[in-house]
Amino acid sequence: YRITETDTIDPIVQRRGRLMSMYLLMSGIILLHITVANILFMKPGTTAYKEYIYQEIFTGFILYLLWIINRKGYTLWIAHIFINFAILTPIFVYTPKDLEGTMVILAIPIIASSFVITPTASFFYAFVAGVGYTISVLYYDLFSEYNFTSIISLFAISFSTFITSWQFNRALEKNQILLNDLERSYEITLDS
């Protein structure tokens, strides 16, 4: 529980900070899995896996720094940095063929944006991921192999997280109203 702690007294920022910490930790675990797999499958004398491992160590360092800064209460800044980093890095690092196999990685920041920033942010970041993937495909002249299903899936994920996050936020607002009414009723009862 302390691993997701955020230094703030605002309960909304505290909740967002905890969610952001969980997304950062989940991304770190995925990155650790990929790094171990690359170490295990690295063939002696090849440089491709070594390059991936260096990139993964650098990315792990970035995730750790973001986690530390998030704990200080800068959750919205960290959310924007993490989400842009998590979407744009695979798009620039991987070729479109490699990106297709890891397209699910782009779902994590889209989901995070909806819960940590605002419910509608998921649509914006799905759009960013779609545009980035399209530019990558056009750059490598592989439009004949364009993966429409993955792009549609990213927008479906953004829509479902939008609905879920919106309902979650409304439920929290209703609970806060009910709690305030209960506190007022309690104070009135004590005063009478």
Feature tags:
80% helix, mainly alpha, 0% strand, 192 residues, elongated
Folded structure, characterized:
- By secondary structure, this protein is mostly helical.
- It has 7 helices and no strands.
- The longest helix has 44 residues, at 148-191.
- The mean pLDDT is 88.
Brief characterization of the structure:
With 192 residues, this protein is mainly alpha-helical.
Poorly predicted runs are none
| Most strands sheet | none
Radius of gyration: 20 Å
Estimate what percentage of residues fall within beta strands. under 5%
| Cα end-to-end separation | 41 Å
- Total beta-strand segments: 0
Average pLDDT, rounded to a whole number, is 88
Topology:
Elements: H1 11-41, H2 48-71, H3 75-93, H4 96-101, H5 107-117, H6 121-139, H7 148-191
